[in-house]
Protein 1
Amino acid sequence: MDQSLTKSDFIGHDDHAPAAKRSWMFARPDHKTGIVSWLTTVDHKRIGFLYGITALFFFLVGGAEALMIRTQLAVPNNTFISAQTYNEMFTMHATTMIFLAVMPLSAAFFNYIMPLQIGARDVAFPRLNGFAFWVFLAGAIILNVGFFHKAGLPDVGWFGYAPMTAKAFSSEFVGDNSTDLWVMGLQVLGVSSVVGSLNFLVTIINMRAPGLTMMRLPVFTWMTLFTAFLIVLSFPAITIALVEVMMDRNFGTNFFEVSGGGLPILWQHLFWVFGHPEVYILILPAMGIISEILPCFSRKPLFGYPIVVFSGAVIGFLGFGVWSHHMFTTGMGTVATAAFSMATMTIAVPTGVKIFNWIGTLWKGHLMMRTPMMFALGFVWMFMTGGMSGIMHSAAPADAQQQDSYFIVAHFHYVLIGGSIFALLAGIHYWFPLMFGRKVSEKAGKWSFWIIFVGFNLTFFPMHFLGLNGMPRRTFTYDGNMGWTSANQLATLGSYILGIGIAYYFIVMIYTYFKGEKVGRDPWDGRTLEWSIPNPPPAHNFDVTPTVHARDAFWYEKTHQAEIAAEKAKKAAEDEAHGGIHMPSNSWFPFITAAGMLIGSLCFAFHYIPGAIVGLGITFFGAWMWSVEGPGGYHLHPTKSDGDASSASH
Amino acid sequence: MSSHAATAGHIDHHHDATTSTGIPNKKLFMWAFLASDCMFFGSLIATHLIYRLHPPAGSPDPRDLFSIELTSGSTFILLMSSLLMALAVNAIQKGNVATTRKMLLGTIIFGLIFLGGQVYEFNHFVKVGGLTLSNSVFGSTFYTLTGTHGTHVAIGVLWLVLMYIRTFKPTDDSNGQGWIAKGALHFLAFAGAVVVGMYTLLALVHAYEEGHGLAYYFSHHFISFGGTIALIGALIWFARSPGPVDFGEANAIDVESMGLYWHFVDIVWIVIFPVVYLLEYIVLP
Ligand code: HEM
Ligand SMILES: [Cu+2]
């Protein structure tokens, strides 16, 4: 191995000392199973799995909260839940769905699938990856402690508009600390998202298999890259906004305090500078998944690949220039309003382009109507509907009527459920065989698709009319003679059907995990590299790092088998000559560092300063030990016993 | 490095053959993080600017508060620390651990001087200028912005100290983590020297300001003065050459990433300094 290779900073120095020799309390665990192996894991696939399970759990929690909302609105003048509980429910529903369900579920795919698609053994910083997950879990716990504590749940809306977050308002109702929990929880989640995204960014740019040029990257990986960029550049804005609220609440500053000269409108700017890119953070991964599934089940390459990629970049870029379309009614002035209105309309162009590309992919394809494909087609249709109403609000005069009405609620659910959630459910179906070696039965899969599809449209389509008939969003109840009753009843009925569909989907997944039809590798006749490895994938992903010759690299491999086999034998021999495959060791410190953050932030939210200091101390200790621990590692020889050229050269 | 094209086997720190782009992962990571940090400071500076341009009635006038001389001085010190940081990176790229240590120490000291200046300033503004976090939006934004920058500097100093201690990691690590315990003591001595040293220094300034003589100072602050001397002695003792160390050219990328962070924090100050201290704002109607 030549010098420059040993200096690789993602592998670092080899650390051949066996674990037993290390006589200190945080010895590197080398367990392969059991709880310790999960707490200390650095394997991107395991971390992806952890993200997925946690996100699905919170998806159910958020769904239950949504059903509470809908039940309350089922009949006029309902008293099912109190106004205060209603506020808590819609705040937690949205916060949970966005930050604890959709984003981490996307992160699950980024973790599990993206490194496989680029032919990498792991992400660039494996321990940091584990850290991002544990920090995410910490943030999720902080946001939800109100369920178990008299502080109560946050009730300020997921947008936390000032001055609702001011101290004066929160102490009026149940818990004084609920807003502090919201503020701390979101900050902690921000740390997780940014750290995770920096890792993905470096991984995609730096860890691609030989020959995998940027213009050969699978589209899902591209969208991961754009999402990571958006997160890295937009989260700081909300972090600052949250820091400012935290200062207002705890240290008497006046950032948003009108009596002290503060400007609540500043909160809205900072929030939406983050908030609008955030909606693309939610939808771009979905677009990536769709762009994998449609070609696979149309038996055709993606139509207009470069255009799909560039339009993704354009969406990401424009996404930063349109935040004030959420603020048309705040009196920004005509120039600003007109400018943001036009900027918003331009976003429809790259979005529309993508839709045409998907239709182009389907055009004259040999469509295989499997469940993932059904969800993907559902996505295209409903996302288009949501996009259409989006264009309607980009016209400021129309938006002045629609803002804060149910029309908006209809719009963002068409893009968030019809878009993000449908794509994520499609992705779970699509990649399930890769992860667990079993396939969901087509019959059960299609039933779950249809129930969810019908329930969803029944819930949210009537909301367009409710909005146009003047029903404001965030209303806790309404009077019987407003003319809103029947549409609300339809929506509530729909939400139950949707709930049943989701429950059915989960049951089908659990059943499939234990009893589903067993399939070998590559059951869909896939096109990208993740399908080239055995299932379930081994820790080292690829016995031999693939060399990429074309877009849809695995498809190419299938059609050029002889050539690829020779190349692999040569590569395996090289790996062996370099001492085998180097894998990073497990580590306790990502977990410990994140645990310190949980303790510190929770104590701070409850104004218990000694606890906050202890938490900070644990975080510091963990980070310090992490930095001196070194990446460690061990070697694997997956191809050595094959008896071919690889073992001979050793 | 380009002039050494012919030195075969020499490690080129700017190119990592194992990455797709040839850029080391840590460096790319740091650049991306700094892009994120730009947005972070951008949001804070925007907050400050908005309130400077629309000051509420009765806002204090910053011109009555600031001492441009003092802040210019500490700004100069901060910029010079960047020079030392660059020299540290240069030294470690040549494998010169002794010089790296000296330059890291220099950077640490300059960073501490800057922080000391800020502590003095904050203290002065609160006590003399009557500007607090809560009595005006100007105070809120001023302390939050410069305080966040100060926190960045402090994190940088902490990181530098840890890096400095890592330069003592012995090659022979076979007796487990003995050096980590020693490193922890080294760190404690460092932290103690800074805190106690600052305290004695401030006491000296006070004694001087209040017209007490040196004799008074030594008689009243004998313990902290002695403590400072003892802690500095401990630092020198810890810094004895421990034989071959496991820190060298291969760690250049670590020092370089830290250097990028440090330079960035200095550059941000170059933006903050004029925006907060130098510009005179026309108050819009
Ligand atoms: C499970 C089915 C769902 C139902 C029945 C449902 C229902 C609702 C309702 C009725 C509201 C309006 C509350 C109000 O303003 O009074 C709402 C708000 C919201 N929902 Fe959902 N939702 C569901 C799923 C989702 C998903 C999957 C997401 C995210 C991806 C989501 C994101 C949001 C957001 C962001 C709001 C805005 C909250 C606000 O501004 O007040 N919802 N939901
Ligand atoms: Cu928007």
Note: The CA atoms of residues 48 and 111 of chain A lie 5 Å apart.
Protein 2
Amino acid sequence: MSSQEIPEENLPAEQGDAHGAVKVADEKNPFADPGLPPHEHRIQDIDERAAKRSERTVALLFTVSMLSTIAFIAAYVAIPVDKAIYVWPIGHISALNFALGMTLGLALFCIGAGAVHWARTLMSDVEIADERHPIEASPEVRAQVHADFKQGAAESVIGRRKLIRHTMLGALAMVPLAGVVLLRDLGPLPGTSLRHTTWAKGKKLVNMNTMEPLRPSDVAVGSLTFAMPDGLNEHDHDFQKNIAKDALMIIRLQPGDIKDKRELEWSHEGIVAYSKICTHVGCPISLYEQQTHHALCPCHQSTFDLADGGRVIFGPAGHALPQLRITVGEDGYLEAVSDFEEPVGPAFWERG
Amino acid sequence: MKKLSARRRHPLAAVVVLLIALAATGGLFTAFAPAAPAKADETAQTLTIEEGKKLYAVGCASCHGTGGQGTTDGPSLVGVGAAAVDFQVGTGRMPAQQPGAQVPKKPVVYSQAQIDQLAAFVASLGAGPEIPTENAYNPEGADIAEGGELFRTNCAQCHNFTGKGGALSEGKYAPSLEGVDPKHIYEAMQTGPQNMPSFPDTTLSEENKKDIIAYLEAVNSDDTVEPGGLSLGGLGPVSEGLFGWVFGLGTLIAVAVWVAARTAKAKKS
């Protein structure tokens, strides 16, 4: 509705009638406080029909919200959890998730929209000016508080009865020790468990895809295989704890490509076994590039050169990737010569 | 002989004669019959290799050397096998457009018949993985759950949990596996194109490969159900966070500004 349709008698006679008139600029002081701009009425303030219409709009929004909530409950009860529907342009989605999201979203949106419309068109529209007050208390109040504190201290005789004062300070200082003892319960300390893995002399390398032990002929140049020690069972209680240290990457290089003398010594016909655990914070690294022989960690981009002793060539990792020394056993399967020579995974205080 | 002729009217005589005749025909057939088609096959094979050699000389020799021995611009093709050729040429990666960190997938320039000829020629240079037959990679009836587990163990670190691809070092990347022909996925696992490691049958069996292909079909087809809708590229917290911050918070701020700025006065000043 435009202002032309508003009945003439309802319009304020002059803007000066309204709350907050403009102060005329003083010639001597052109930067004087201009005061509030003149108040302007809303349509709803002067036209009761417009106000009624706003009221109905707000009520409608709240009613839609109520219906949406009922629809939400109905959808929750009625729609089976595995039903899928096609919604353009999203694709195939769960009908239940779609219905719950839409109805609850609409219910919440209508409450918000109704409240905003109510506040903007029907609630009081009068400008209000408030003085700011200093945060500091008045000097009298402060003097009173100081006097009260001094009187309290004198009455408690804390200055005169030194024994009470000292034992109280002692008690307050000792109480936090209870927390320290409780935190100690988060232990026990790891002991030597970070230094050792399940790998040991004669442990066979088991392919994690087929769960079969590996022969050297199974591992082709340029291939990548993940292995774990023989005897580790996924259903064992401590499987996760062990595999987090034992996991291996098995790759095969041309022996001539191996730059590190020790790596060549610890390999078998170019087959090398490296720990899969990043030495930075222990993510499983296995983004192996077969042409560059680099292994990349997806977490912080530490990059190791698997043709050069697992040397760190980029990123935050502090140690080279530990290599497992392997050989072939009497029955022709790859096996470990010993445990890792150094702790696998991230650094710890006592690692050295 | 007399004994034999005496029994020629025995009720089982006909059966015995029939069995002897069958064995003789079968034996003769195995001795002579397969020889003829094999010969024909061999000549057809030689022809294919000849055709492949001509194509190779035009399209590949400048980088891989006239005898496939490799040059500074391209690796040796001796022993890469027909499957590698079928993958590289069949996905348009070869012939390469320009040198770079990685050769991208692009429109295929050869027909499948020409690719087969090239593959036959390269296979003749040295034994390598052969082009798989349809029933090797057809995921029909494979174990999708097992495939998911194998994919997470062997592939997800580079290609993302549902094969959306990901970044590698120095401009290299693991491409998305969405909409890739099952045959090409199989060949890639077998041959290890570019910087991808290979997964030979000895460490990832044919059955395992089939399971992985079935898993990829299940999570990436047009009928795949996204329980929440709007996968936002399926890359995880990066794209989801970006969407939340830019579009979610942006919309809220815009609405707040609109609510506060627009006034409902009877007279506009």
Note: Residues 3-186 of chain A form one domain.
Protein 3
Amino acid sequence: MSDVEEAITRAHRAEWARVVAALTRRFGDLDTAEEAAAEAFATAVERWPADGVPPNPGAWLTTTANHKAIDRIRRENKRDDKHKEAQMVYDDSREPLGAIDGAIEDERLRLIFTCCHPALAMQTRVALTLRMVGGLTVPEIARAFLVAETAMGQRITRAKAKIKAARIPYRVPSAEDLPARVSGVLAVLFLVFNEGYLATGPGTDPVRHDLTTEAIRLTRLIRALLPEDGEVAGLLALMLLTEARRTARISASRELVPLDEQDRGAWDAALIAEGHRLVRERLAAAATGVAPGRYQILAAINAVHTSARDMCDTDWSQVLALYDQLVRLDPSPIIALNRAIAVAELDGPEVALADVDRLEHGLAGYHAYHATRADLLRRLGRDQESRAAYDKAIDLAGNTAETAHLIRRRDRLR
Amino acid sequence: MQYLVSVIDDKSNPGSTDRRPAISAFNERLIAEGYWVFAGGLADTDTATVIDNRGEQAVFSDGPFVESKEYLAGIWVWEAPDLDVALKLAAEASKVCDRKVEVRPFR
């Protein structure tokens, strides 16, 4: 990649959300902001190779996008008088857009809260956040969620229309509403991360590094904006500690490598150190009586796993204690299933199997339920039942690397 | 910005019938705080008449235009600066009248 291409890619990562946010603020319309931002980046691709990279790319892009938006509004006003009534007026008296400062950080936060508004369906929130804040293209988002491009385009268009028609406010929620609204934002980011980490679909890469990276980048952004929020720190730590194991998790033959078989030397030490630092910070806060939420507990569980030299060295009683805490917060069967895996290490597969079997009602359609049962039955020497459970898990699994791993495990049974 | 707030009742699982005083008190508050534009409860769907005068002559037919378990039991029209304000009021309204409500902006 040439220096200029690299500068454009870097500017896109760093400045897309700022440009969209600044323009949304000024023109009061997500459509105008998004299209003008896209035009400004297209202009950069044309001009920067000849003119050189401007000294302040963010300011250049914002100014260019601003001109594009004004041109666009003028064009449309001329074209269609009826449309004119519906067009918002732009306000020239506001502060110059080139200034990139603390106030603009706020703008991005507004943008995130608008895209993650509870009046939008969860899938829509995810798509809109990736487009408006993450700067992913519609085809990229469609591919990530295995939806047709036109369907994804329509979903985003409808969401923007709802924001405008229903007047979903472009602002950070008030202090009293903030905790409830942040949790929705975190849920969106966690969904993006998980889709990247355990990508579904026969034609997709088993790990979508672009999505995990994007989720981490956006969570870092929220963390910078809300440094006091424990769950934001918890989610960031959880993502970092999970991402640290990414390369060790898929073998050369593109098969999932379970935790006990992973080469721990291949884990990313820098990400683990950063994740551990965040978990310690939250432990210190918990010691002062602040109860940790689910992301903080999940991060702590991952911190225990990533502190161990190997599987045997893992402090399973600590893991189990954390799961007990988590079950109290979130009594979902999926949490109970993960807890059973820790029980198997402490009390043996038989006790764990009894726990797992009790979850059949809620989890019969979930591949991990059958995979966990298969593994426990295998350890108990009940090969035939294990094989049947692997078959069910293989049928239900959507991730190619996971399917390959389950098939290998099944075929090793006598 | 005006919002239509539809009160939705359910024939198979109706809301409680003793909500009048609570709704009146809530309406007083909407008026005092400047959100109230209009409100009204509707008689049963059996009382509806549908008119179609798009053809040669007007056709009157008995009953609601759509039969369903869930039906429109009443409406509010509110004036609110944005959806967050409307949603907050709607959450209270649902509790006050013990029914689901739907919020929709006027065009």
Note: Strands of chain B lie at 2-10, 36-41, 49-52, 59-62, 70-79, 100-105.
Protein 4
Amino acid sequence: MDSETLLARITDYANRPNPYPLYAELRESGPVVRQADGGYLVGTYHEIAALLHDPRMSVDPRTRGEVTHKPPFLRLDDPEHHRLRTLAMRPFGPPHSPGRVDAMRGEIDQITKELMDSFEAGRQIDIVDDFAYPLPVTVICRLLGVPREDEPLFRAWSDALVAAADVRPEAETTETDKAGDQARIEMGGYLVNLAEQRRGNPSDDMLSAFVNEPDPALRLTQEELAETAVLLLIAGHETTVNLIANGVLTLLRQPEHLDQLRRDHDLLPRAVEELLRYEPPVHIRERIPLADIDVAGTPIAQGTSVVLVLASGNRDAMRFHEPDRFDPTRPDNEHLGFGSGIHLCYGAPLARIEAQAALGALLPHLGTARLVQDPPPYRQNAMLRGPRHLPIQL
Amino acid sequence: MPGDLKEGRIVIVGASLAGLRAAEALREEGFTGSLTVVGDEPHPPYDRPPLSKQVLLGQATADSTGLPMRRDPDADWRLGVRATGVDLLAKQVLLEDGEPLPYDRLLIATGTRARPWPNPEEALLDGVFTLRTREDAGGLAQRLAAGPERVLVIGGGFTGSEIASACRERGLEVTVAERGPAPLVGALGGTLSKLAAVMHRNHGVDLRTGVTVTALHGNGGFTGAELSDGSRVDADVCVVALGAVRNVEWLAESGLAAGPRGIACDAGCRAFNMYGIVTDDVFVAGDVSRFPHPLFGYQMLSLEHWGNAVEQAEVAAHNMVNPGPLQRPHLAVPTFWSTQFGLNIKSVGVPTYSDHVVIAQGSLEARRLAMVYGYQGRVTAAVTVDMAKSLDYYRHLIETAAPFPPPTGAADRAIAADVPIPSDVPDPKGLSHGPTVALTGYLPDRRLTVVQPTG
């Protein structure tokens, strides 16, 4: 059966520029599609949403005995997940730090402006390297309290970790996993060391808040702090860069919508939501059932890999009217771009502000800009999909 | 001609949440005719949930809860005007100022009002409040801000519990008198009501259960109350939280199926007349309606839920401007939420339509849990405490009539999840406040009797 090779074809780098026809094939093959390796793919909106909310679906790699160390909260089930996510949320969002993210708007605008200072008409720039990458990196560094000049250091770790987290069926992964493990340990040590320097001497950043928490019941252990800080630093920029780059690419491909946004800046928040539906940064998440389950009539045994293709759910005509159309005025846009359920993206409020600020600032420059290369070269990663470079002529 | 339904005269009686959302939805649906909204309060539509929470905490003022308009419904607003009747034959709404208001289609969304203290003289004492309107909330908030010695709350339903929570958060002494065995027992059943009682007491509420208030005392100003157990509570503020009364009296002579439990309508929000015949041009939405729901045995449901008002208004509006074959049923699964004592409580389904419950995730001890309710082997409701993101999963179980107890396997599943226990939903007659969800076709307690053999 051809549909049994869908995951292999989706993760095949040759299909990275446009996986959407494969997603359409996935949805046409049924809500639950068995793969040759025995796992399942789910690409329809309602089934994905239901599985994301299903408390029997585990994200913990230890469920399958893959690792022995305790993962970060992104890969933990409740109640452990809830405890650690709640602790990680204390210095970041409501109810304990309600204004934290919103208060960064001005700073984000300022960083955006500084990055654009070098943009001149007629010049060629790389949206990824010159803008979409440095913006979220600078923001997350300030938020966490990581020196911006250490970027080359954590970029290498981050690359190794993200590569290890990708979905790679039929690939020899031992080396990648080993490199990922090594990077995780080194990066964790680096961040814990940074945090320790702030113990008793806090500044206004999240690492300081973590190590200076007065209530012992609300403190992270050193291992938990390492895992959490690594997660926040990586997730804080690896996804937003794709959101911004995918956004610029989408708008340059659709000049009528670019014009529409240039005329009506108030549409920006909704346009960002539509981008999260239409070209989301996170395409795939995996879950493991803790019990034998039934999904849309298909029995799935405990412990089987269930790959949720979020980006396919976002293009499901059973949920969205004309799903393949980019429509920045789309009402009722409850996309899966940030996932859903208990693992709903922790950084979503920050990502929204960054994307709105970035695209809003770029809009005046994009009217006369053109794509140098379409499709642009993509990153290797199938799970976190986005251009590696996006050269445009201003 | 179907096209005619987009034109003509539509009158909405009731200018609160359901009335406003219906007006907006009518325009969304392409209605181009004349639209009149009648409301007896002088204010434009406002939101009520903050009145018992943020307003009492002093975080928002009572007049700041106006409902945002999603679009201008381009309506003729007749505010501060009471409707006094309907002439179904002449197709007119009668207003208190004597002017008849002709309609082609009518939507009734008159909602509920606070059930008053039964003794009118005692109710007039200064310091005795009910909590339903913006004025109520403003007056009570002002009194709480002045720092009373003690507040007496009569009734431990959602409103009463939220008021008690707000008082404690403000550092005020508060006594709650509840006729049933625990707060929230009428809405959530026995097991969760135990958690509610613990939360009240842990937060310093003087909780009295199994008692009624027999008299309010005062000479001009409220000074205290007598309880059925012979005790006395000295307090200078009293909030009567005895549930709500449906605003149907104005329809007494109308020939519509309007009674104390609301106005009966079909699943398409079309009102029944007193003979059970469906009307073609009178629709009902929101708290004042009672409608059949297939997930709950086609029992007539009446709900005092924010979400129900919105969803039912949208269905009613759709059906008012579309011909029969294109009309939609109102089948939304009921949901509601409450915040009190630092807990976020959310419910989906109808917890009172149950015979058993299990704690499917979390635990009472952790104060974070999902409790699932079943009726005759089928999942009919779930309530989460600080676990709101699980709600959609349980909604899906309810919608698909999944077997009860629910499937096992959740990572944070409680050991107790293997042991269904009686849901212990009391007879509403034993509660001091009216239920916010009522199955008006039968009394659920009749089927909830559990015989425990002794010896």
Note: Residues 151 and 174 of chain B are 5 Å apart (CA to CA).
